[in-house]
Amino acid sequence: MQYAVRGEVVMRADALAAEGKDIIYTNIGNPHAVGQHPISFYREVLALCDLPAEYGVDNPAVVASFPVDAVERAREMREAIGPAGTGAYTNSQGILQFRQDVAFYIAERDGHPSYPANIFLTNGASAAIEMCLTGLISDDRDAIMIPIPQYPIYSALIGRLGARQVGYYLDEEKGWAVSEEELEMRWDAAKADGLKVKALALINPGNPTGQVLKREDLEVICRFCARNGIVLLADEVYQRNVYADDKKFISAKKVALEDPQSENLQLVSYHSTSKGFIGECGRRGGMMELVSTRLAWLIYSFCVPLLSFY
What we know:
By secondary structure, the chain is α/β, with parallel strands linked by helices. It has helices at about 10-20, 40-50, 70-80, 95-110, 125-135, 155-160, 180-190, 215-230, 250-255, 295-310; strands spanning about 120, 140-150, 165-170, 195-205, 230-235, 265-270, 285-290.
């Protein structure tokens, strides 16, 4: 298999570095490696979670070495983790209280409910993407639609799993947007080749293009996937990396839940601690949320009239 951001260019860079050349590695988003300093609060809390209690949270002198808010957060997290500590296996989806925290964040972000049972904590977003593609792909006639340009984890995994990639091209002149015509053309071509498109990958904000998709663009994609029974894989790990004053990140979930034409969408969205202000790539913290908008619309249709009645 080939993985462009870790392939020949990087090996050549390593060889040049061994010769004494000054190399800046920008092949992958790796903030701390290029000078971003870690946020101390996260490191303090993690240290206190790992330390035996008598040396950390239960030590009378702990506040002389750690801020009070870090100690309080560490106590909360240790209670959620339980007596087994940080070195033990957890629930397959991740610790419930942490999934509750993630669900709260998503609900605050989107203005729609999020449920811990739909949240999976993973070894970075990459592991979550691999899980989904592994589950979706069953033979060499299966295909995944991916944006061009794309982050090469998609092409690499699709190749390794023996499936086919169907590229849909982003329009640079329109801010790297995607049109319905482009999606339909690639879909029709894939079907004509005897391929079964299982999913469509969306990267928003974009990598490597950096675009932030408008609501109208997201509606096009959500409706296309809902109409054709395609799972939408929404890679949203850069949602805090928006630097243009006239741009705002909107999640695919929010758009789908507010658009009746996306009622039958099956959606998986991803986020991680690697980007944004955190930049903890090596800590491997990721999550995915699985959403059936059909179920969400049924709940909404039932609950809203009921609440209005009361």
